[in-house]
Structure formats: structure tokens, C-alpha cells
Write a structure and sequence with these properties.
Elements: H1 3-27, H2 34-58, E1 62-63, E2 66-67, H3 74-80, E3 88-89, E4 92-93, H4 95-105, H5 119-130, H6 138-161, H7 182-192, H8 195-200, H9 207-224, H10 244-255, H11 272-284, H12 295-301, H13 305-321, E5 329-334, E6 339-344, E7 347-357, E8 366-375, E9 379-380, H14 383-396, H15 400-403, E10 406-409, E11 418-419, E12 437-440, E13 451-454, E14 463-464, E15 478-480, E16 484-486, H16 489-496, H17 505-514, E17 518-531, E18 535-537, E19 543-545, H18 553-562
Length: about 575
């Protein structure tokens, strides 16, 4: 045999051997050495890199039949890990995969739909992958890895800031939460195998959120059992009434633990205990606590459990829009609940009812820093109120301004001067040619009352006293032009000035009696949060519901039903 022929045969044998080795590296799954496995993972690494590069060029992409929502974040995540697979080792899903799937399957407990996070497609792929004896479709591993990463990032970001952008549903919500470096978040959690703890840290750190979340399971159980009784009655129910309808009422109140479970299962007498249960229910729903089942109480009783679940889900979303911590000391006003609380270290140290904006002058959701208060404030009447409400009254009664202790200034800019009302031709003025500023003097008739609490903002919203004290007795209190009227202005001022030796309750009352307009800086500025929550749990875990006074629940529920559009 010639040297040339022998050389060709040797080369051919080496080529065949090389091809056979390659085949074994690619398709043998159960008998790979560490070095061989490393080579195969390197091949997967290169495939992931190519997919990510194409993703960056194309923008939003479809992976295994589903849109990837994190197309802007995924490339950075994989770049940080040099495009190594995140969810498999040697072609097999590792324990972090199971950890993520357990969380996704339980996502409904946070008010989410698990299918929003690619769950069905991922479970189909993982079943396929675990059924392999050899890796027959390397591209499927790439699909699986990208879907898992997208699912994890979407779930994490949703826990942190919600699914819905409040700006898209005109929620008048102007509180922003901070963002997170999501690629770093996920890589750190995978390196340390701490996904469950990392997810837990993303949930809002508020007792009201935790209580709402905890309420979903028992309510879901009630819904699965057919819901609670509907009370059908044409007249009110009150203490002393008897009959089957009272038994129905008892069972309904027992379902939500407003009534105590007594020895006998049938209670057909409206007695003292049932009256207490009705009052407890009324208090939880912001109703007049008279112990009588009238029109409003009956309507609240008959709201289906699934509607209450949806209301909870909507408000869990709102809590995710808020900062995850308000700090150790703050003022919070729940617009829908008509309540103000001063909170220190998680406990309310001052609570009071408030009046909020009407339907057409809604109080916005935002936050600010309260820095000072005014005693015996002037009220500079907003232009819209001046021309729409005060001007017509002046045209009817030339003495209206004097009676209500208003004065007229020459304008809003420069150095305005007081203009005698009788020097103005009021009949010639309208909303388009009204150059004046109307200001109400300090005093008993002043619309701001005796104290105004200022946290400068672009919405011209503040807290203030009011002469209309009777409104605080109403169960529903949306009567203002947008500002927050507080029922305990002296108590709030006393709290805010407690670290100023010059100001006590007596000195505050003395300053009010003096009638002079005084500006007092707070010794410690305090954050203020105006929020809109129609369902929450108190510190004892008791659920509270309120009417959706601004009609914001339905658009939010509809948005939650339609997002994210990943299929």
C-alpha cells in the first residue's frame, strides 16, 4: 500500500471518529463526563446568545408560541451571566425551576392569574424535557430557558409594582414607586438559590396588604361552596323580628364572621347578639351603625362573594402601586374610606374622619411633605370657584361678599391691592373676563376653618379645618372641592407641634382666639400620603370594604382582566 493511500485512509478514519464523537456529545444525555457536559452546555450557551442577539434586533419576540414581555430586560440578564442557561444543568431543570413554578401556581393568592406568567406553556415544555432519554431538541431548551426567565421577571416585577400602569386607566394616581435592577435581582437570587425569599421581599410591607392577601383563600373557599345567602326582603329588618329570613341573615353574617357561631345552627330571632353582628358588619362597610338592616346594609350584604374577591384583587394591585414602605412616621388619608391616620412605627396614634372631594372635584392620589401650618388662614378662592359659584351670588346680592367676609384683590400677580366691591360693575363680568382675586378673611365663616396644614404640591391640595362640622357625622363624606377637611384640626396641630416648646394645646387655642394669621413651621416635617383604597384589612386582620365613590374599581378590574397580553 502506497504512503499516499495510507495517509488518505488515516485521515478518513480520523474524520469518521471525530463525527462519531460529535454525535455522542450532542445526543447522549445519561453517560456524559463532566467535560463532555460542559461542552454541551457551551453549545446551549451559544444558542442562547444567538437567540438574544436576534431578539435585540427584532424587539418584541415570540418564544415557543408566546410573547416575551421582558424583551428589554432579558438581554441584560443573559449578558450578565455570559449567556449561560439559567434554569437547566446538563439539560435537566434544576431545583430553582420547581421553586419558581410553585410560586407561579400560587400566584392567585396575590390576586394574579397564574396563566399570566406562561404557566401552561412552561409546564408543557418541562414535561417534554423530563421525558427525554437524550436531548433530541436543543432549541426546546432555549425556549424553556427564555420562557422561565421571562416568567420569573414578569412575576417579580408584578409583585413589586403591579400589572397595570395607573396612568393607562386615568386613575389620577401620582405616587411613584422606585424601580429595581431586575437582571441583578434574578441573577443574585439564582446564585444564592433564594427565589422564595426574594419574591417575599417584593411584596408591599403593609399589614393592610398582607391582610387582604390572607383573606383570599377563605373567600375563595366560600365561593367554591356556592357563595353566601342572598337576603330577599322588601322591608327593613331590626331587633325583635322573627322568622326564616332572620335565620338567613344569621347565616349570612356567620359566613363573614360578623356573627358568633352559637350552639344551635338556627337563629330565627333578631336579638341583641344579632344586632351586634349587624353593627359589626355595618362598621366594616362604612355604613351607619344603627343595627338595622335597611336599604344600604341589605345591598352590601347581597354583594356576591366573587365580586368581593375581585374588589380585593383590585386593591391588592393598588397597594403594589404604592411605596413598599411609608417610613416610620407619616400621615395617611384614605380618600375612599374618608379617614385620616397619623402612624408611628406601624401603629395609628391619631385617627379622625375627613371630608374629601366630590365626584366632579375628585381628590387626587399623591404624596408630599408637610412642612408648616397656618393658624387663622386666609382662603384665596380658586378662579373656577370664584366665577362659577361666588360671582352668581354677588350678582344676586351686592352684599354677599360682605356677609361672607370676602375681600376683592386686584389680581394674582405683582403686588395686588384691595378693591372696594362697590367700585366694580359685577354685571359686566363672566368666566372669561374676571381679573380679580377673591379672598376670604380669617374667622368663623372662613371655608378653611381655623387651621390649614400645608404640604406644597402642584395640585393645590391641603388639609384644613372647616366650619361645616355636621358633615363629619355622615357615613359618606365626599363634599369638598378636592382638599381634605379634617374633623380634629386642633388635635392634629397639637401632635405636629409637640416637639416645639412654644406650642401646646392651650397656646394653639389662644392663637386661634386672637384671630391673627400666623404661619408656624413644623419642628419635624412629616410625609403625607393621599391614597384611594376600597378594601383593606386592619391590624386585627378584619376586612373592610367601602363604596367606590369615584368609580375607579371597574376600570382597574377590566385592565387586570386584559393584561398582560402575552398569548
Amino acid at each position: 500500500m502506497s504512503y499516499t493511500v495510507q495517509k488518505v485512509m488515516n485521515i478518513s478514519l480520523r474524520s469518521i471518529t471525530f463525527v462519531l464523537v460529535l454525535v455522542l456529545l450532542v445526543f447522549t444525555a445519561n453517560s456524559l463526563s463532566p467535560q463532555q457536559a460542559e461542552g454541551r452546555d457551551a453549545g446551549l450557551q451559544e444558542m442562547i446568545k444567538l437567540r438574544i442577539v436576534s431578539m435585540e434586533k427584532a424587539g418584541r419576540v415570540v418564544c415557543s408560541g408566546e410573547f416575551l414581555c421582558g424583551s428589554a430586560v432579558l438581554p441584560e440578564f443573559y449578558k450578565q451571566r455570559d449567556y449561560q442557561a439559567a434554569w437547566t444543568v446538563n439539560g435537566s431543570p434544576h431545583k430553582d425551576t420547581d421553586s419558581l413554578l410553585r410560586n407561579i401556581r400560587a400566584a392567585w393568592k396575590d390576586g394574579f392569574t397564574p396563566e399570566a406568567f406562561h404557566l401552561q406553556r412552561i409546564e408543557t415544555l418541562i414535561k417534554k424535557i423530563r421525558g427525554w432519554t437524550t436531548i433530541t431538541e436543543p432549541a426546546t431548551l432555549v425556549d424553556f430557558d427564555l420562557l422561565m426567565t421571562d416568567s420569573c421577571l414578569l412575576y417579580a416585577s408584578t409583585l413589586w409594582s403591579g400589572l397595570v400602569n395607573p396612568e393607562t386607566i386615568k386613575a389620577e394616581w401620582f405616587i411613584k414607586s422606585r424601580d429595581i435592577d431586575w437582571p441583578d435581582f434574578l441573577n443574585t437570587a439564582l446564585i444564592n438559590h433564594t427565589l422564595p425569599a426574594s419574591f417575599a421581599g417584593l411584596r408591599p410591607d403593609h399589614a393592610a396588604y398582607r391582610g387582604l392577601k390572607d383573606s383570599l383563600v377563605p373567600l375563595a373557599n366560600i365561593a367554591d361552596e356556592g357563595g353566601w345567602d342572598v337576603i330577599s326582603v322588601s322591608s327593613k329588618l331590626e331587633k325583635g323580628d322573627r322568622g326564616d329570613i332572620i335565620t338567613q341573615l344569621y347565616r349570612r353574617l356567620l359566613a363573614t364572621e360578623d356573627a358568633d357561631d352559637r350552639e344551635t345552627s338556627l337563629q330565627d330571632v333578631f336579638d341583641d347578639e344579632l344586632e351586634k353582628a349587624v353593627k359589626r358588619f355595618q362598621a366594616r362597610h362604612g355604613l351607619e351603625t344603627d343595627g338595622v338592616v335597611g336599604k344600604n346594609t341589605l345591598a352590601a350584604l347581597n354583594i356576591p362573594v366573587r365580586d368581593r374577591i375581585r374588589q380585593i384583587e383590585a386593591n391588592l394591585e393598588r397597594w403594589r402601586w404604592l411605596p413598599h414602605s411609608f417610613g416610620s412616621r407619616y400621615i395617611i388619608v384614605n380618600i375612599a374610606g374618608f379617614e385620616l391616620d397619623v402612624v408611628e412605627n406601624g401603629a395609628s396614634v391619631l385617627h379622625m374622619p375627613v371630608v374629601v372631594g366630590k365626584e366632579f372635584t375628585k381628590t387626587p392620589v399623591f404624596d408630599g411633605i408637610m412642612t408648616y401650618l397656618d393658624i387663622n388662614p386666609y382662603w384665596n378662592v380658586p378662579h373656577t370657584i370664584a366665577v362659577n359659584e361666588i360671582l352668581p351670588n354677588v350678582k344676586k346680592d351686592p352684599l354677599y361678599l360682605e356677609k361672607q367676609e370676602y375681600e376683592v384683590l386686584s389680581g394674582w400677580t405683582g403686588t395686588p391691592v384691595i378693591v372696594p366691591p362697590d367700585s366694580i360693575d359685577w354685571t359686566a363680568l363672566n368666566s372669561r373676563n374676571f381679573p380679580y382675586r377673591i379672598r376670604q378673611k380669617p374667622g368663623e365663616k372662613n371655608a378653611l376653618g381655623r387651621i390649614k396644614f400645608m404640604f406644597p404640591n402642584s395640585y393645590a391640595i391641603y388639609l384644613h379645618d372647616t366650619p361645616a362640622k355636621s358633615l363629619f357625622e355622615r357615613a359618606s363624606r365626599s363634599f369638598s372641592h378636592g382638599c381634605i377637611r379634617v374633623s380634629g384640626p386642633v388635635e392634629l396641630a397639637e401632635y405636629l407641634l409637640q416637639n416645639n416648646a412654644l406650642w401646646s394645646r392651650d397656646s394653639i387655642l389662644k392663637a386661634i382666639a386672637g384671630g391673627e394669621n400666623l404661619t408656624v413651621n413644623l419642628p419635624q416635617p412629616i410625609p403625607v400620603f393621599l391614597i384611594y383604597i376600597t378594601a383593606w384589612a386592619d391590624k386585627d386582620g378584619m376586612l373592610h370594604f367601602r363604596d367606590d365613590i369615584y368609580g375607579r374599581d371597574k376600570p382597574l378590574m377590566q385592565a387586570l382582566d386584559s393584561l398582560p397580553s402575552i398569548k
